[in-house]
Fold each of these.
Amino acid sequence: MSRTAVVTGGGSGLGQAISAHLAADGHRVAVLDVNADAANIVASAITATGGDALAVGVDVSDEHAVEAAFAAVRDAYGPIEILVTSAAIAGFTRFDKITLDEWNRYLAVNLTGTFLCIRAALSDMVAGKWGRIVTISSAAGQQGAPAQGHYSATKGGVIAMTKTVALDYARKGITANTVPPFVIDSPMLRQQQEEGKLPATELLTRAIPAGRLGVGEEVAAVCSFLCSEGAGYVNGQVIGVNGGAVL
Ligand SMILES: NC(=O)c1ccc[n+]([C@@H]2O[C@H](COP(=O)([O-])OP(=O)(O)OC[C@H]3O[C@@H](n4cnc5c(N)ncnc54)[C@H](O)[C@@H]3O)[C@@H](O)[C@H]2O)c1
């Protein structure tokens, strides 16, 4: 069945792969990203291959911009039925060097941004008695990560918030699950390696039982299942995509 889907952070990396996969599943996909050009490229690539996608530039930490973006999707595609939140920022700062501004920015984008998008989508899902919410969290939110106290805190918050949404809306036909990846090959990861903030791939893979990095498509495939009709009894779950690195 064809549904209306919103993917935040859809302009790059995991969000790009998730947007493409949901479009290939037959859904109408709104690609939301603060980088409007990137969102446009992803939406154009989907439409060029026969899918249905539109791009919306939005900063997910801006309450009014999020409401306007979801209203634009609703106008174009009808009520929102699927939401995948992939938009986030990530970086490395030793805990005692994290400034309050930096801390607040991580909270605003990663945690408040996820909250604002879920809230903006819920009214349609409640009215339609059907909804699928998938948050992309992180293994850092499950077990911490060196020099990522701010990032880890936001991702732990995303995991707890997702479980709560699952409980609150379980009787309304809505599921909420979270996918915490470990290291997935993406522009975010490569930039961190280039900046010397993450070890080289050979070193990273030593910590992964699978012996390799993940790819965006492997996260997208799990999101696709969690957004499907058949996943209606999977709710409030933390579905790691991590090559066995977090058990
Ligand atoms: N790549 C990994 O190894 C990895 C591991 C664990 C978790 N994650 C999570 O997966 C998700 C995607 O990461 P990625 O690796 O694809 O990163 P990425 O940087 O390639 O993509 C993130 C996207 O989010 C967008 N974005 C950033 N701030 C935004 C804002 N304020 N409003 C709207 N859009 C915004 C960026 O423009 C970008 O297009 C993130 O939530 C990240 O925390 C990634």
Amino acid sequence: MPSERATDTTPFAAMDVLERASELEGVVHMEVGEPDFRPPEAAAEAAVAALQAGDDDYTTSRGTASLREAISDYYAETYGVDVSTERIVVTPGSSPALLLALLSTVDPGEEVVLTDPYYACYPNFVRQADGTITTVELDPADGYEPSVDAYEQVVDEDTAAMLLNSPANPTGAVTSGETISELVDLAEQTDTMVVSDEVYHGLAFDAEEHTVLEYTDDAFVLDGVSKRYGMTGWRLGWAVCPPAYVEAVNRISQNVLICAPPFVQAGAEAAIREGNDQLAEHREAYRERRDLLLEAAERWGFDVGYTPEGAYYLLLDVSDLGDAFDVADVFLEEAGVAMTPGPDFGDGASDYLRASFARSTEDVREAIERIDELLATTTT
Ligand SMILES: Cc1ncc(COP(=O)(O)O)c(C=O)c1O
């Protein structure tokens, strides 16, 4: 009999939709956050060269010194913050980094505060750490900006961690520096750990993004190469740890992960060092796709009610058409457009579909045409 923890772990709806969509021909995939842009060429070159040179042994579980230096330089160059390489632990994707952060911070029964909507996997991560979940509702009328007042109502000395995410999945909202700074102050006053998922950094096209590290060293920051460099399948991420937690994180990593593959680390290092110039072009493309979808949503009569400023997601209120799961089914089966039903992302997204515009602009246009046609035939 599987454990309670395993039984309580819910499936990830986006992956379920992907599974069904993969059985159908010619589907436009707007259900997953899989960037259409290729990784920087330097990444594949460095990974192949590393493999050919026989670089295929374990590395230390912290990651290679040169990758951690590249990550540290990235923070210095991008945000002007000093992150010593000793605070960085490299992991196979940012997802394991998040798990390590929570396992190192949360004791059984302790509270973790999430926003709602949230990234669908967050509650399951908290469950793996045997934590309890409290949510703070976000409002599209505020552009899904977290309200510090609302946090003050729930965060206290008994809170173990607050989990932040900007640019955010599933909303595409970018949290202001002021809000982050005020949440960091609240966390300091209540001895709460800030865990900041920054995996969409580099992809804010309409707002300035801020790392929590600009305001404190006493926080976990999780990031990786998946989204920024289009390297989802490489499985490479990292945790920047608060100084007092590095050894705890590393001990767990030594036991359960051992290390990220060395040639993947070599490729990621090249991406981080050489892959940033192309990001401006990518952001421009994401902005164009967002605008196409916003315009179409208005035509379809789906309320959006805010303007996503980063990442590549948009929440569409489809409550006028029916239940979000049913609408997602009709879009997929009748129009060949896959989107993720919102309920997976929290009660605050239950009337919505999440559309990802990470696929090509051509695909986005095609999806819009198909939904135009579908809605024209179903409403006449
Ligand atoms: C908010 C957020 N965090 C983390 C991840 C996982 O990223 P990785 O591929 O680095 O494990 C995703 C993937 O979609 C995400 O949307």
Amino acid sequence: MEQCPIALPFDRPGPFDPPRALAGLREQAPMTPLSFVDGHVGWLATGYEAARTVLADPRFSARRELMHVPLDLGFAHEIAGGPPEAGEFLRMDPPEHTRYRRLLIAQFTARRLKQLEPRIAEVTQTCLDRMEAAGSPVDLVREFALPVPSRVICELFGVPYARLEEFQNHLGTMVDTDAPGEEAMEAYTAFLEFLAGLIADKRKAPGEDFFSGLVDSGELSDEELTNIGFILFGAGFETTANMLGLGTFALLSHPDQLALLRGDPSLIDGAVEELLRHLTIIHFGPLRAALEDVEVEGALVRKGQVVVVSLPAANRDPKRFTDPERLDITGSAQGHLTFGYGPHQCLGQQLARIEMRIAFPALLERFPTLRLACAPEDVPTKDMMIVHGVKKLPVAW
Ligand code: HEM
């Protein structure tokens, strides 16, 4: 007998854990029928292998016009709707997607990332100086988790220093969950205008930065560049910011793990991977639509059905990870799916890793007595967002 479709669960037991119901579902079967807000019935992938299959199999599409949304949080238009616009490669399939992906990979060179490292270290120290000057207690999100990646994005885009603040203000308002809708919309429009101006400047005088490289490739129209710029911002800024905020909260809430890391800074690479796995901040999707009937781990996904891939559930699959519910910075988080898998796997993952490997140790070194400045349950979290994180993190030292 066919199982009754469930609604996407959202009963998160704590700030670091995915919805409680996911583990029970995964135990029953790696794929569960899922009901969507428009009446569509698709699937929820909770098993590690099922998630990888859906993300890697070319019979599953990322195209926007094929999507349905499993719950309405006001961002349905970002996920489902008409076909992708020029340059919106996150919602395209190969070979269209591959063309953009190649152009971007050509700019994310090891040399450019290496060059960014000292700049990221500088930016981090500047933010820490400000945080220290502001004095204990402060909101770590405002002083550290947001400004570090926002300045790194400025480096990536080659935003001139004179316009840094303007750019950062647009970014800040767009991701501010408490900003009224109109303000966020205005910031969005202003950001697009800002990007258009930046593209025009770089066409005239390209610099050494990543975005100049894309403009200078001569292969992309202004429309494509604007959409790519927007994806880079969306994918690269809020994600890393949330990892820095939620990651610090997790470390401060696990004193044994924090002590281990403070005692042996060489553990940082493993700690970053484990924080990525344990927190799996992309809590909603990726989504894929079946282009034909496909069997996934015993479930028959019919042509046209949409699968919500639960990365948090996959990253806690006991069939793949030992003791997956525990945060263990010395454990093996290798193979986690936090950056996705398959053709759309995160393009900025090395950059994100570099940022975290620099930022966490710098923070801990600067403030040896860093602690939460409120009760853990009073830290406001972004529960109903695509990207999970903390809205504020009051800390003291
Ligand atoms: C901790 C931080 C980050 C996380 C957790 C993360 C996660 C992800 C995930 C799960 C995907 C796959 C989406 C899908 O399959 O539909 C993705 C794609 C992508 N990410 Fe990231 N990301 C992070 C940081 C970054 C950074 C710093 C950048 C660049 C500045 C970036 C750029 C991208 C781009 C361009 C894609 C689309 C790739 C494609 O469609 O081919 N990400 N990211």
